[in-house]
Specification:
The chain is an alpha/beta fold. The chain has two domains: about 170 residues, Alpha-Beta Barrel (TIM Barrel), CATH 3.20.20.10; about 120 residues, Lyase, Ornithine Decarboxylase, Chain A, domain 1 (Beta Barrel). It is about 30% helix and about 25% strand. It contains ten helices and 18 strands. Strands 1, 12, 13, 14, 15, 16, 17 and 18 form an eight-stranded mixed β-sheet that branches. Strands 2-3-4-5-6-8-10-11 form an eight-stranded parallel β-barrel, surrounded by four helices. α6 links the parallel β5 and β6. The longest helix has 17 residues. The chain is elongated and about 70 Å long. It starts with a helix and ends with a strand. The protein binds pyridoxal-5'-phosphate. Pyridoxal-5'-phosphate (PLP) binds next to α10. It catalyses: L-ornithine + H(+) = putrescine + CO2. Its EC number is 4.1.1.17. Its cofactor is pyridoxal 5'-phosphate. One of its GO terms (cellular component) is cytoplasm.
Length: about 375
């Protein structure tokens, strides 16, 4: 935890769980990405944490923005980004939202099938924008192996289909701009980009055979943040990606962009929460300790779904003896359990009213928090 967050929490008036995000950490992360991938443009994935202060800082630092909706586009614009620094990276868009984005001036769109290409072309006509000014990139499937939060199946087409999708874009008068993929979020394997870049280069070659000259590869997100396990440094990702680009594209490396979300803001945030109840329950396997916090899956910790993301949790009693417990949230929904399959070690002396600090919570927390489930307010967010 940074000294700035510690100081902020000491002085805050207690009013339920909150996340505190330290902008110095975000600034540091941005410069690490810029140094590790010097020839690559950064499109911050707004969905990870759309706090206006975070977006403003990144806009000032020169970042571009990957957005998933018109609301995110408007947030990026409000933070100072111009439309040419914004991509509409969701492959599932309403035609009227594409038209709105085009009216706003956004010209870069993700697609993964011919139907989405046709929506972009029709929306351009509706918005009175020349199709030739609109760039589309085709997202290809990635199995997400090695990632703790894989994004496979739902997005992207098989590489063989991408060439047809891009050719379809050209038939509609759009600019076939490139290829994108996402190797899965919290990707611990620095080599994970290699295979996808092999597929991307094959698509470039096949498109060229059909007279279509692509310009860009979108390397997506996937860069991890520190939870319990040690993760490779951003430099290692940069080196591995550069090696893979050279291997597959030789001396004709295309324009590249990255879309980091978790890796940009995850370690910048800490949630302070409170123990509401500690109870012992008899089960077939013996007595089990349950610890209930005032935050759970519906208060922002949705990424504990399947227990895939395991956050580091600190308390003031961490020098005491530790024992595993089932950790749960405060709502009346039995799904609101954070860790049960693999119980979480917490101090045996933990008591009602104790504070806990949940680290690595700068990404994918505030936006996952329900507005008023069970009457609990959404997660408060402070950016310092
Ligand atoms: N780009 C796209 C299109 C995404 O859908 C996501 C996450 O869902 C990201 C980037 C950010 O990924 P990460 O947080 O793993 O960096």
């Amino acid at each position: 935890m940074t000294e700035r967050i510690r100081e902020f929490l000491r002085n805050r008036r207690e009013d339920g769980p909150c996340v505190v995000v330290d902008l110095d950490v975000v600034r540091d992360n941005y410069s690490k990405f810029a140094r590790a991938l010097p020839d690559t443009r950064v499109f911050y994935a707004v969905k990870a944490n759309p706090a206006p202060e975070v977006l403003k800082l990144l806009a000032d630092l020169g970042s571009c923005f990957d957005t998933a909706s018109v609301v995110e586009i408007e947030l990026a614009l409000a933070a100072g980004a111009t439309p040419d620094r914004i991509s509409f990276g969701n492959t599932i868009k309403k035609e009227r939202d594409i038209a709105r984005a085009l009216e706003i001036g956004v010209r870069l769109y993700a697609v993964d099938c011919e139907a989405e290409v046709e929506k972009v072309a029709r929306a351009a006509a509706t918005a009175g924008v020349a199709a030739s000014e609109v760039k589309v990139f085709c997202r290809i499937l990635c199995d997400g192996a090695g990632a703790e939060w894989p994004l496979s199946r739902k997005f992207g087409c098989v590489p063989e289909m991408a060439v047809d999708v891009l050719e379809h874009a050209v038939r509609q008068g759009l600019e076939a701009y490139g290829v994108s993929f996402h190797v899965g979020s919290q990707q611990g394997n620095t080599e994970a980009w290699d295979q996808a870049l092999g597929s991307a280069s094959a698509i470039f070659r096949e498109c060229a055979d059909r007279g279509i000259h692509l310009s860009m590869v979108n390397l997506g997100g996937g860069f991890p943040t520190k939870y319990l396990k040690t993760i490779p440094q951003v430099e290692a990702y940069g080196e591995s990606i550069f090696r893979a680009l050279s291997k597959h594209f030789g001396n004709r490396i295309p324009e590249t962009i990255i879309e980091p979300g978790r890796g940009m803001v995850g370690n910048a945030g800490i949630i302070e929460a409170e123990v509401v109840l500690v109870s012992k329950k008899s089960r077939d396997e013996g007595e089990v300790r349950w610890v209930y916090l005032d935050i759970g899956k519906f208060g922002g910790l949705a990424e504990t779904m399947d227990e895939s993301i395991r956050y580091p949790i600190r308390t003031e009693r961490d020098d005491d003896h530790m024992a595993p417990c089932v950790l749960a949230g405060p709502t009346c929904d039995s799904a609101d359990v954070l860790y049960e399959k693999e119980p979480y070690p917490l101090p045996v002396s933990l008591e009602i009213g104790d504070k806990v600090l949940i680290e690595g919570t700068g990404a994918y927390t505030t936006t996952y928090s329900a507005v008023a489930f069970n009457g609990f307010p959404p997660l408060k967010s402070y950016v310092i």
